[in-house]
Amino acid sequence: MALDFGFGFVAGVTGTIAGYPFDTVKVRLQTQTLSHRLYSGSLDCFIKIAKQESVLGFYKGMSSPMFGVALINGIVFSVQNFSKVLFEDPNTYAALAATGAIAGGVQASICSPIELIKTRLQMQGIGQQRKLFTLSTNLYKGPIDCLNKSYTRQGFRYGVMRGLSMTLARDIPSFAAYFPAWQFFVSHFSPTGKEADMPMYMSLIGGAFTGIAAWTVSYPFDVIKSRYQAAREHVYKNVWDCTVKSLRTEGWRVFTRGFVPCTIRAIPTNAFTYPVYAFLKQTFDTPRDDDSIITTTTTTKPVTKLQSSSSSLTEKQSITPIQSI
C-alpha cells in the first residue's frame, strides 16, 4: 500500500505538468459567462493566453495541484487496491466500479480545497503578463494565501470546503467509470488480456480512452464545481442555485463548455502518468525470491496450494493508470 502511494505520487507530478495547460484552458472556458465572454473557443483561449500572459500563464496555480494531485493519486491507488479485499473476484466490472467509487469518495475531501485553490489562481490576472510566476496586482499571492483568505472570509465549511458536494458528485461516478473502462480496454486490446502484455503505445491510447470515459460521465458536475468555486461569494447561494442560473441564462450547452481541451488533456496526462507509474511498480514492486520459500511441513499438499496462490496473485497484480484532476 505504501509503495502504491509513492508510485502514484511521482506519477501524479509528471502527469500534472504535462496536462496542466489544457486544464487552465478548460477552467477559463467553464467559468466565462455570455455577458462577459473573453474567448470564442478552445483555440482562441490558447492563443490569447499565450499572447497576453506568455507560456507561464498556462501554469497559474500549478504548485497546489502538482503536489495535491500527486497526493490524491497516491490515495486513490492505495484505497482502490485495498478495497479489492471486499470482493471475492475484484476484477469484475461491478467490483472495479465499486472500488473506484470508494476511492473517489475518500479522496474528494482532500481534492475539493485543492481544486478551489487551483481554480481561483487560474482565474486571476487574466490578460496580464506574468513574470517569474508573480503579478503586480494579485488577489492571492499564492496557494497558502488563497486558502487563508478563503477561510478568513467564510470559514472552513463554506470557504475552504466550498464545492465539496460537487467534487463528490463528480469524482464518485468518474472513478467508478474509470477502472472498468481500463479493464474493458485491456480485455479487448491486449493480445493476452493482461496489462503487462500490451505494447506501450496501446497503454497510452488506453489511458486516454479511460480518461475520456471518466470525464464524459462526470463533466457537467465539474462545470458547476468550477463556476461555483470561481465565483464571488454573493453570486450563488449554493451549488443548486449555480446550476439553475447557469442553465437558465446559457442553456444546456453550458454543461459541455471546455470539454474539448479536457479530453485533449487526457492524452499527455496519461501518456506521462501511466508509463511512470508502471515503470516504478514493475521496477521496485517485484516479488523477492525468498517470498516463494515456504517452511517445510509434514504435509506437502497445503504447501503446493500456497505456492500456487502466491504465483496467481503475482500474475494478477494491477498497474492500472489513474487520471488527474
From TrEMBL:
It is a multi-pass membrane protein. GO terms for cellular component: mitochondrial membrane. Its main location: mitochondrion. Keywords: Membrane, Mitochondrion, Repeat, Transmembrane, Transmembrane helix, Transport. Coiled coil: none annotated. It is found in: Mitochondrion membrane. Solcar repeats lie at residues 6-86, 91-188, 198-283. GO terms for biological process: mitochondrial L-ornithine transmembrane transport. Residues 306-318 have a biased composition (Low complexity). It holds the Pfam family Mito_carr. Residues 306-325 are annotated as: Disordered. One of its GO terms (molecular function) is high-affinity L-arginine transmembrane transporter activity. InterPro entries: MCP, MCP_dom_sf, MCP_transmembrane, Mitochondrial_Carrier. Belongs to the mitochondrial carrier (TC 2.A.29) family. This is Uncharacterized protein.
